[in-house]
Design brief:
single chain; binds adenosine monophosphate; binds zinc ion; 3 helices
Length: 136
């Protein structure tokens, strides 16, 4: 259930206090200590899963439904006009805490959150090659 030395296990299960904005049997949603924007929250399962690949399907379904609910509530109470859902898996993707979590990042007009990437170009050959890889 709980993984030793996992900070999000301890937060999720209430052993370490957090600024919780939602809690049920399976999940806790709490405010990020280094927020990208005002109200940035993290949705975590109470059971330990390192990342999306480990997360049980049933909990994955519940997580996205809950994210939708909390995102709606954020719009109501924070007055944000957009929301980014961000979910990092693996160091290469920027994951720093290895307990599955979904970032809910409220967005405001002209906020300074740099959630972006540099769009590159791709050839039609490369696109075809990629499609082929997924069909094998
Ligand atoms: P990631 O880079 O996707 O693994 O995100 C980890 C997030 O957890 C970062 O946004 C951190 O600011 C946040 N974080 C780490 N420790 C805590 C904590 N004790 N309470 C709240 N947020 C935390
Ligand atoms: Zn954990």
């Amino acid at each position: 259930m709980e993984q030793e030395n996992c900070i999000f296990c301890k937060i999720a299960n209430g052993e370490i206090p957090s600024s919780t904005i939602y809690e049920d049997m399976d999940f806790r949603v709490f405010l990020d200590l280094n927020p990208a924007t005002r109200g940035h929250a993290l949705l975590v399962p109470k059971k330990h899963f390192a990342d999306l690949f480990e997360l049980e399907d049933e909990l994955a379904k519940k997580a996205i439904i809950l994210a939708k609910q909390v995102a709606g509530r954020m719009k109501e109470v924070l007055g944000c006009t957009g929301i980014n859902l961000v979910q990092n898996n693996g160091e290469a993707a920027g994951q720093t805490v290895f307990h599955f979590h979904l970032h809910l990042i409220p967005r405001y007009e002209n906020d300074m959150a740099g959630i972006t990437w540099n769009p590159e170009t791709v050839s039609s050959e490369e696109l075809q090659e990629l499609v082929k890889l997924f069909s094998e």
